[in-house]
Design brief:
By secondary structure, the chain is mostly helical. The protein has 9 helices and no strands.
Amino acid sequence: MIDLALLPVYLTTVVALLLIPGSDMLLIASSSLSYGRKVGVYASFGNATSGLILTLLAAMGVSALVAMSPMALELLRVLGGAYLLKMAWDCIRSDSVDAPEIAAQHNLARLLYRRAVMSNLLNPKALIFFVLFLPQFVSTQLSASSGEQMLALGLLLNVMGLAFNLLLVALVGSLGKPLLNSEKFRAYQNKFMGLVFFALAIWILASQVQS
């Protein structure tokens, strides 16, 4: 369901997009650095989950309808920024005793998974990206419908994105391992993530969304 003539261009474009630093990369890298590779892996899967949801919405045409409404995009932007600000506040006000033990991170990993899902779904630029990007590679030479082609393109994008993010987690997690063994750093790791969420909130709230 993907035009093989367009596939090389599509793959090249996706790789280029993955290498551009963005809010997803910041969240996954900082999660891995602050809490370890397991949490970073969960955050990566959270990002992939939101990508699959956006792919399905784009294939069904739902996201296109939302993207045509300036009010809906503005509401998404405000909700996304507010959600990230709440996450920032929750992290910053946490006491040092809340910092998790390295061997007991399962609950934290699930929390970061949910946060990664929600932060991406509430980012209007992510929705617009799927609406504007995927249709560029829909071919009229195939018998498959545009929705089926967009679904296939989106799935490929998400698989490549997940692979890239897991590689990022492995690299950053290895670099951050000495920090995780430092009691001083672990006392402030929640505060660090709070600053990251605050930066992401400002990123969304200060951005201008073009519909």
